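Running this now, will post back.
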Amino acid sequence: MNRETELAWFKSSYSDGGSNPDCVEVAHTPGTTHVRDSKKDPRSPHLTVTGGAWSDFVAYAGGN
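Update: finished.
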């Protein structure tokens, strides 16, 4: 089975689908988080970070 099909991707809550839809998708696996821009091509390479790095990013991006 292809690794991509094993990941359960979901669209970011910030991807609102308005006039300029941003399609950032995230998939969590034990210990890692995968991030991709599916607007261009969901089969393209994606970014993989540790769970701790993702938590730090979300806290920083959210201004908390």
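The first strand starts at residue 10 and ends at 11. More later if anyone needs it.
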